[in-house]
Design brief:
alpha+beta, two-stranded antiparallel ribbon, 32% helix
Length: 203
């Protein structure tokens, strides 16, 4: 598994300055180019706008192929999450809220062809903290995308576990979830991309 992962990582490296390594030798190549200049190609953060369709180049029989990667499962491993409950991907379309409590608020309607997809993972981190991981697709309109996240969170956060029991909530993309935290809730929000990137490079 380590060898295959290593080969797949090499297949996806794209250096911003491919000729620079020859000017400074192997030490520069190993300690700077791979650490700094190659990061964007080893983890394309823009791909987190649709984590259910994340693809990497993999090599089989000396041929490169695009392969769908299970980002959700990979993230669980990276943060050491002991999964307690995980839901399926659910699709919705957003409609303007009938009684909006802020400008741009929406309501979600289940729709297999909807542009907004969500998946919930609940579990325990190695340090004992309870975590909720919200995976979502992000549309081009960030305001409406976050309004859809707000609507989803309000409707589904208490099932099956009270949200007050969470210590941390991971979610991909910029968001306003902390604005929905009540006085008796103490969870903090961490962007999935930040945690993913930190864990990939922590050694």
């Amino acid at each position: 598994m380590r060898l295959e992962s290593y080969e797949d990582a090499l297949s996806n490296i794209e250096l911003k300055k491919p000729g620079a390594g020859s000017l400074f030798g192997d030490d520069y190549l190993l300690h700077y180019m791979l650490d700094i200049e190659a990061r964007g190609s080893l983890l394309n953060l823009k791909a987190f706008t649709n984590p259910f369709e994340y693809k990497l180049l993999t090599t089989k029989f000396n041929e490169s192929h695009e392969t769908l990667i299970d980002v959700v499962e990979t993230f669980n491993y990276l943060i050491g999450l002991t999964v307690i409950n995980e839901g399926a991907v659910n699709y919705f379309r957003a409609v303007d809220a009938a009684k909006p409590d802020y400008e741009g608020a929406v309501e979600l309607v289940r729709d297999a062809n909807g542009e907004y997809a969500f998946r919930l993972i609940e579990g325990k981190l190695p340090d004992g903290r309870m975590a909720l991981v919200i995976w979502r697709t992000m549309g081009t309109d960030l305001v409406r995308t976050n309004a859809a996240l707000d609507a989803y969170f309000r409707k589904y956060r208490i099932n099956p576990r009270e949200s007050s029991e969470y210590d941390v909530i991971f979610v991909n993309g910029d968001n306003n979830l902390e604005n929905l935290r009540t006085d008796d809730e103490h969870w903090k929000v961490v962007r999935t991309e930040t945690a993913f990137n930190d864990k990939m490079w922590e050694e």
